[in-house]
Write a structure and sequence with these properties.
By secondary structure, the protein is of the alpha/beta class. Helix content is 34%, strand content 17%. Strands 1, 2, 3, 4, 5, 6, 7, 8, 9 and 10 form a 10-stranded mixed β-sheet that branches. Strand 8 (214-219), helix 9 and strand 9 (246-250) form a beta-alpha-beta unit. The chain is globular.
C-alpha cells in the first residue's frame, strides 16, 4: 500500500471513530454520582436527588457532545431503543415521578434533574425525550414549558389527555384508583379536571413554534390509551398549525408491547435531530443559569427491574 494513502486511510478511520472516543477532560469535570451497578453490559449509576431515585445508564464510550436520552417512565421496560442508543454512545437517564401524572410536583422534579444533568454534569443542553404510556403526561407537560431545552420527542402509545386515561371519559376503560391519584396530584376536583386545559393536547404550540421534531409510535388497536383520544388529537391539532408529527403505526397491536423489535426508525429519527442541531451550530453545553433545586445527591440502592 502506498505510504501516503496508508497515512490518509489511518487519519480517516480515526476521524470516523472520533465521536466515540472518551474525552478525559469531560470525564474529570463531570463524573456521574451514585452507586455503580450493571444493566446488561453497561454501567448503571443509581443515586437520589434529595429523596428522589435517579438512574443514569452510561455507554462504554460516549459520543461527542454528551448526548442523552431522557426516559420518562417505566425504567428499562421494552428497552430496545435505549439499548441501541447506549451502543451508539448516548447516556440514558431517568428520575422517578411515580404517581404524579405530569402534575406540578413532577414538573419540579424534572426541572431539578435537568439542572443536574446539564449544568452540573455537563450533558448536552437538549435531551431526546422518550415516553411510553402515562409518561406522555410529564414529557409533554415539561416540554411545553421548556421547548428550547428539547432536542426531539419519541412518544410510544402516549397518554396525551388524562381524561382519556386514567379518567376513562372516552372509549377506554380508564382506572378509577389512578384517576383519583391523578386528581390529587393536580389538586383538582373531577369537574375541574374535565374543564382543565393543561393537557398535552392543549399545549402543542410552544413545541411547534420551536420546531421540535415529534415522533409517535402507536398500536392501532390500543384500547387502553386509544389513538383517537390521544395521539390522534395531537396529530390533528399539529396539522391545523401547519406542522406534522411523524407516525409509526403498528397494525393489529394494542397498548403493549411498546417500542419496535427493530428500533432503527426511532434511532434514525433521534440521530437526525441531533445532527441537524449540530449543523445549525446550537450550543451543546448550556451556560449555568443558577443553582439547582436539588438539595442533595447521594448514592442509594435501587432495584434494576423497578418499573417506575
Amino acid at each position: 500500500m502506498h505510504k501516503r494513502f496508508s497515512v490518509f486511510l489511518q487519519i480517516t478511520i480515526q476521524k470516523q471513530n472520533s465521536h466515540l472516543r472518551p474525552k478525559q477532560n469531560e470525564y474529570r469535570m463531570s463524573r456521574i454520582p451514585g452507586q455503580v451497578n450493571q444493566i446488561e453490559n453497561y454501567a448503571l449509576h443509581q443515586f437520589s436527588c434529595g429523596a428522589i431515585p435517579c438512574r443514569i445508564a452510561a455507554p462504554k464510550y460516549e459520543a461527542s457532545g454528551r448526548p442523552w436520552v431522557w426516559r420518562a417512565r417505566f425504567w428499562w421496560a421494552f428497552p430496545e431503543f435505549d439499548r441501541t442508543m447506549l451502543e451508539r454512545g448516548w447516556h440514558v437517564a431517568h428520575i422517578d415521578v411515580t404517581e404524579l401524572y405530569g402534575g406540578p410536583e413532577a414538573i419540579d422534579r424534572w426541572n431539578s434533574f435537568y439542572h443536574l444533568m446539564v449544568h452540573e454534569l455537563n450533558f448536552a443542553s437538549q435531551p431526546a425525550i422518550e415516553c411510553m404510556s402515562r409518561g406522555g403526561l410529564i414529557s409533554y407537560n415539561w416540554a411545553a414549558r421548556n421547548p428550547e431545552k428539547v432536542l426531539c420527542m419519541y412518544a410510544d402509545n402516549p397518554v396525551c389527555d388524562f381524561t382519556s386515561w386514567p379518567g376513562g371519559k372516552g372509549s377506554g376503560p380508564g382506572n378509577e384508583l389512578c384517576w383519583q391519584t391523578c386528581l390529587d396530584a393536580y389538586g383538582l376536583s373531577e369537574e375541574e379536571a374535565l374543564a382543565y386545559k393543561g393537557n398535552p393536547i392543549d399545549n402543542l404550540k410552544p413545541l411547534i413554534d420551536a420546531g421540535v421534531p415529534l415522533l409517535h409510535v402507536y398500536g392501532d388497536e390500543d384500547e387502553v390509551v386509544p389513538y383517537a383520544e390521544n395521539s390522534g388529537i395531537m396529530v390533528e391539532r399539529a396539522r391545523s398549525l401547519g406542522y406534522d408529527i411523524e407516525l409509526i403505526r403498528k397494525p393489529g397491536m394494542g397498548h403493549h408491547p411498546h417500542c419496535l423489535e427493530d428500533p432503527s426508525p426511532i434511532v434514525t429519527f433521534v440521530e437526525e435531530a441531533w445532527r441537524f442541531r449540530r449543523v445549525q451550530g446550537q450550543p451543546v453545553i448550556a451556560a449555568d443559569s443558577g443553582k439547582s433545586n436539588v438539595n442533595k445527591v447521594q448514592a442509594v440502592p435501587i432495584a434494576v427491574g423497578d418499573s417506575r
